[in-house]
Amino acid sequence: MIYEDLKSKFDKNGYVVINNFLSEKETKDLKDAGEKLTENVPADVKTVFVASNTKHVGDDYFIESADKICFFYEKAALDDDGRLLVDASLALNKVGHALHRLHPTFEACTYSDKVTNVCRSLGLSKPVVPQSMYIYKNPGVGGQVVSHQDSTFLFTEPDSLVGFWIALDDATEENGCLWMIPGSHKTDVHKRFIRNPDKCATTQLVFQGTQPEYEQSLYVPLPVEKSSLVLIHGKVVHKSEQNKSQYPRHAYTFHIFDEGISQYSEQNWLQTKVGFKPIYTT
Fold first, then answer.
1. Does residue 17 lie within any of the structural domains?
2. What Pfam families has UniProt attached to this entry (predicted)?
């Protein structure tokens, strides 16, 4: 199956929504797998996922997560001593970054015929997957994700990064749906999140460059029903707000770039020791 006009719509706006991308069973299987992960968090793991325009989580556990399944808490879920303030099933921000290789349910989705069809419709010659995440965005504790470009974190040259964001719940303005600036992918990558070139520094990860202040009136909300796929260009500016509802907003997301035309930067914070598995090669 080839999606007609997918590439032209994607090139125009920097994002595309494909409704009913997954079946009801496929959607449920992913969400069940994500909820099951909350039951297996190692007791010694207390890393909080912090992401802002100036500060980002940067401990060894995070830096070495490219080839593992690692667990990251919401800031509001733990007290200063690392004790849970909410039920364990609601405490995680995300799990990453190798679900697509190490967990059979997420691997089956990532390397499915449906994903292959999208990649071919976008004209990718050798799509590979550098990372994947299960994002929880639970009621009350699900925090804001600030304005950003995904290529800030996963820089390729030339830029061929595409985010696959699959809604496992209905995503609404109340529970923290995505917000996009249409056409903003036609600018440069404003800043980079890289491994610190100063090996003597105490900070292992640093931002390089300056992100502009984005005009809030340019954003448009992107509510979608569960089972929908949102394709996100690496340079399109997007964000999501805090989940202020009583309902979860779970999502499975992974990124793809075209290794046939692009080089993955050795400066990127995320570095695998085993290489990237292609969706297909042409």
1. yes
2. PhyH
For 29-76, write each residue's pLDDT tens digit.
999 999 999 998 998 998 998 776 656 677 899 999 999 999 999 999
pLDDT tens string 127-137:
999 999 999 99
User: pTM of the full predicted structure?
Assistant: 0.96
**Alpha helices for 65-148 (secondary structure H):** 99-102, 104-110, 113-121
Tokens for 27, please give them: 């959607």
| CATH code, domain with 12 | 2.60.120.620
CA 224 to chain centre: 16
Q: Residue 147's Cα: distance from chain center in Å?
A: 13
The rounded radius of gyration (Å) of the Cα atoms in the chain is 18
Q: Evaluate whether residue 1 is within a structural domain.
A: no
Which range marks the domain in which residue 42 is found? 6-278
Q: Tally the domains of the chain.
A: 1
Positive or negative CA dihedral for 58, 99, 6, 178?
negative
Q: Which amino acid does the sequence have at 163?
A: G
Instruction: Outline where DSSP puts E strands in the chain.
Output: 15-18, 69-73, 92-97, 127-135, 145-148, 156-157, 162-167, 178-180, 191-195, 205-209, 220-222, 229-233, 238-240, 251-258, 263-264
Tell me if 169 is assigned to some domain.
yes
User: pLDDT under 70 in the chain at which residues?
Assistant: 52-56
